[in-house]
Amino acid sequence: MLKALIVVDVQNDFCEGGALAVKDAHEIIPIVNKVIDFFNKNQYFVVATKDWHPANHKSFAKNSNGTIGEIGILNNLPQVWWPEHCVENTYGSNFHPNLKEIKHIIYKGTNFEIDSYSGFFDNGKLKSTELLSLLENNQISEIFVLGLATDYCVKHTVLDALDLGFKVNVIEDGCKGVNLSFNDSNNALKEMKEKGAKIIKSDDLN
């Protein structure tokens, strides 16, 4: 069984000082790096996703006359209005400077008309990224997911992976959540587990 690690959106804008900083996000960097080392050492596959938004992306509150943190409608889907973040080719869209180098990168959120939490599809599943074909071409059947944020991009990547038939493990201590509501991350982990994901710790890898 061939395994892959998916590192989700460990980008400057989601880390301390970023436009959409996840609380304590910097704490996961050493854990993510430890897991990357483990996968590289065992010659498993490693891929990272990046939010890669055009400046006119309509999920940005300022582009849709929305209020940051409130929910509106975009492309007939519920949409949280976000601050401008991870605009393509900006410092905020770069990986955290302490993150170990990852060769394979998947860009998402590139269509200004619709948001993309999952590493596999946009939120309306209108278009897919290259992630599924990359995993299939490398004969991956089991994936391990960590990164930012537990309650959004990690959760949606995991749920789509389960729907696509992958065996999925979530490395809980390698994730942090936005938590617009207090229990969002806990509820996300519960939902992922109920749908079939295994929740593990980085120390469980061997």
Structure, explained:
With 206 residues, this protein is α/β, with parallel strands linked by helices. Helix content is 22%, strand content 24%. It is built from 4 helices and 8 strands; from the N terminus they run E-H-E-E-E-E-H-E-H-E-H-E. It has helices at residues 29-41, 131-137, 150-163, 184-195; strands at 2-8, 45-51, 71-74, 77-80, 104-108, 140-148, 167-176, 198-200. Helix 3 packs parallel to helix 4 (184-195).
How would you summarize what this structure contains?
With 206 residues, the protein is of the alpha/beta class.
Largest beta-sheet characterization: 6 strands, parallel
Low-confidence stretches: none
What portion of residues belong to β-strands? 15-25%
Query: N-to-C terminal Cα separation, in Å?
Result: 15 Å
| Percentage of residues in helical conformation | 10-25%
**How many E-type strands?**
8
Describe the secondary-structure layout:
Layout: E1 2-8, H1 29-41, E2 45-51, E3 71-74, E4 77-80, E5 104-108, H2 131-137, E6 140-148, H3 150-163, E7 167-176, H4 184-195, E8 198-200
Helix pairs in contact: 3-4
